[in-house]
Write a structure and sequence with these properties.
The protein has 198 residues and is mainly alpha-helical. It contains ten helices and no strands.
């Protein structure tokens, strides 16, 4: 029994060292873009923790990831969104770069977060002040604003008027109306992570 004790202690030390190493590597991995996120979130008046939570859900901080619908990079920005952003900036160099090789342009973490924040704010602007602002913004970012319109039409929870007030639809009611399972899961996961106290 005694001869196995040193071996057991060595194994225990190796396991503990591995666990500690994995923990610190994970902390580095998920926080290595924090400075970029903070800078771009501030420019677009977004909460940096929300942007961080979107990136966590979209790609788990893998800048090279290409999505099933050709979304690129950390925030899974579509080439079309990047081209619209480039045109709206007025910088011909950005327009040229997105026309020539949009994937390369969006693979740069700073550009990807910049365009992703711009688009997230553009979606948020549609629902600013709504009771379900965060959930609607995230659903629009993931599935498109037209889907959010579908999910907010003809709500039985509203007072019967010709123009129901979508702004009063609660977050819970809105999430229940999302009929795409992946989008419902996406919105719920991001909101849960975003609202965890630091």
């Amino acid at each position: 029994m005694r001869r196995y004790l040193p071996l057991s202690l060595i194994l225990l030390v190796i396991v503990a060292a591995s666990a500690i190493g994995l923990y610190y590597f994970n902390q580095y991995w998920i926080h290595r873009y924090d400075e970029l996120i903070a800078r771009q979130a501030k420019i677009y008046s977004l909460d940096e923790k929300l942007v961080w939570s979107v990136i966590y859900e979209e790609t788990y901080f893998r800048a090279w990831k290409i999505g099933a619908d050709e979304e690129v990079g950390l925030m899974q920005v579509t080439p079309m969104v990047a081209r619209i952003w480039a045109k709206e900036t007025g910088f011909q160099e950005f327009e040229k770069q997105t026309a020539q090789n949009v994937n390369e342009f969006l693979s740069d973490p700073e550009r990807n977060i910049q365009v992703g924040c711009w688009y997230l704010e553009k979606m948020r602007d549609k629902y600013r002040g709504f009771a379900a602002e965060d959930a609607m913004t995230l659903a629009a970012y993931n599935a498109g604003a037209s889907r959010v319109e579908e999910w907010t039409k003809n709500s039985s929870n509203f007072v019967k008027t010709s123009q129901p007030d979508v702004s009063k639809l609660s977050e819970k009611e809105f999430i229940e109306r999302i009929n795409i399972a992946s989008t419902k899961s996406y919105v719920s996961a991001i909101l849960e992570r975003y609202r965890v106290p630091k």
